[in-house]
From TrEMBL:
Domain of life according to the entry: Bacteria
Naturally occurring in which organism (per UniProt): Qipengyuania spongiae
Protein name: DUF2382 domain-containing protein
Length: 239
């Protein structure tokens, strides 16, 4: 059981280990003066071909000081699209307030130099307990064999693991596209991870959209996950 769960987490952990060749330019940036909306969409491919999608929005404000830029943010929306069997887990995620990134401090080139790393793991612990109950009561099927703890960490998506891998150039990345493929030794089988990153920016250099698509192949299985982040003027992502 645990073995399958660890493999399922490969896409999440791999993004933190593989450095992106995209680097922000070392020039001073001019942060927006109006509120912005940051949206993060996490999409996971479940074992039965169905999708688990968590969308979370934060209202952000940028304030430039003499030596740095402060980004404050508050969660304003969350949506969870999941199979009916996972309704109890979906409810936990929908009720969870995640503001672990904020406030963030940027240097004058837009790179994150510090952020809020405080985490409330209550939702994760509760979710793991609920997941164990659900999985124990279900007959063998598409989700059979999954590790409840690993599954819940994927559902939460912004736990300490996610916070630790937030890129320094989250708000001011370099536009471009890159793909990397690596082999992974899983003991009695070989796996392969393919990561594709596509980033676009606004004329002022602020993030417009970044997408990280991960394809994991192992033991005849082919799994996909995707994470997208958008930054728009608040009114443009209000719906």
């Amino acid at each position: 059981m645990a073995r399958i769960g660890r493999i399922a987490l490969i896409p999440t952990l791999a993004l933190g280990r593989m450095p992106s060749p995209l680097r922000a330019a070392e020039i001073a940036v001019h942060p927006p003066t109006s509120p912005m909306r940051l949206r993060r969409v996490v999409e996971r491919d479940l074992a039965d071909g169905k999708l688990l999608i968590v969308t979370r929005d934060w209202q952000c404000e940028f304030v430039r000081e003499s030596e740095d830029i402060t980004v404050s943010g508050r969660q304003v929306a969350v949506e969870v699209d999941a199979p009916p069997a996972l309704a109890p887990l979906s409810a936990i995620e929908k009720n969870r307030v995640d503001e672990g990134l904020f406030p963030a401090r940027l240097d004058l080139t837009g790179q994150i130099v510090s952020m809020n790393t405080a985490q409330d793991d209550t939702a994760i612990r509760k979710g793991v307990d609920v997941a164990r109950t659900i999985f124990a009561s279900m007959p063998p099927g598409p989700l059979d064999g999954a590790d409840p703890e690993a599954f819940m960490v994927q559902l939460i998506g912004t736990s300490a693991q996610a916070i630790s891998r937030v890129p320094r150039d989250l708000f001011y990345p370099v536009a471009g596209e890159w793909t990397e493929t690596r082999s992974v030794d899983l003991g009695d089988t070989q796996g392969e991870i393919e990561i594709r990153v596509l980033t676009t920016t606004r004329p002022d250099g602020l993030l417009e959209r970044t997408e990280r698509a991960v394809r994991t192949r192992y033991g005849g299985r082919d799994r996909h996950s995707r994470e997208c982040q958008f930054c728009r003027k608040a009114r443009q992502l209000s719906n």
